[in-house]
Amino acid sequence: WVLSSTPSSSQIFPTSSIYANMDYLFWRKNNRDPLELVRYAESECQAWYSAKDSTPTPPQTHMVEETQVLSLENICMVDGSWTSMDQCSGIGWVWKDDRGKIQLMGTKNVRRHETSLHSELEASRWAMESMLQHSTCQKFGTDCKDLIAMVNDPQAWPNFSTELEVIQILKMCFPDFKIQYFPRVQNGIADSLARNARSFH
Predict the structure, then answer these.
(1) pLDDT tens digits for range 20-29
(2) How remote is the C-alpha of 193 from its chain's centroid?
(3) What's this model's pTM, rounded to 2 decimal places?
(4) Among candidates 122, 102, 106, 125, which has minimal Cα distance to 114?
(5) How far is the C-alpha of 140 from the C-alpha of 40, rounded, in Å?
(6) CA 58 to CA 188: how far, in whole Å?
(7) Do 113 and 92 touch, CB atoms closer than 8 A?
(8) Cβ atoms within 10 A of the Cβ of 147, count?
(9) Which residues make Cβ contacts (< 8 Å) with residue 151, sequence separation at least 6?
(10) CA-CA distance, 64 to 49, in Å (whole number)?
(11) Rounded Cα gap, residues 155 and 67, in angstroms
(12) 66-96: pLDDT as tens digits
C-alpha cells in the first residue's frame, strides 16, 4: 500500500501501529465498522484451532502404509462442504510439505452452489490457484472420487463445463499435476476447514 499509487494521508497511513494500519486498510477496502476486522480475525483463529483439534487419528489397521505415504509427500488436500439447508458452501485446503508438516491452510465460505460437486470444484480451483502463488506443490488429494473423474475426463461432465474449463487452464500451469483419492479419514483437516467455513458470516 505504501508503494502503490493509491492516495492516502501521511498523517493517517502508514503509522507505527500495526492495528491502526490494518484498521485503516480494512476500512478503505470495505468501508465498514473496524470491529469487523477483529471479528474476522477471531473467526479465522477459531477455524484454525477447530481444524487442528478435529484432526482424526486414523485407525491402525490397513491404513498405516497409506498414512505414511500421505505424510511424506508435498501435497495439498482439498475439500468442499455443502448442504441444501445452509446459505453458504464451505471450502478448505491444507498444504503439507514433504515432511508432513502443515505449511499453509485456507478456508472460506462462498454462495451455496447447486450441488456438492460444484463446491468440490470450487475448493480445487482455489487450492490450485493458492499453490501456484505460494508453493511448489503439484499434487492434490481429495476424498471425492467424482472430482478426480471430472478433472481427468472433463468432456464426460458437460453440466460442469464452465468450471472444468478453468480447472483445465490451471492444470496447464503445473508441469507435473496429479490428483489422487484419499479416504475421508485422511482428509480430516481440509474437511473440518470446509465444514466450519459454512458458519462464517
Answers:
(1) 666 555 555 5
(2) 8
(3) 0.63
(4) 122
(5) 28
(6) 10
(7) no
(8) 24
(9) 124, 164, 167, 171, 179
(10) 26
(11) 33
(12) 444 444 579 999 999 888 777 888 889 999 9
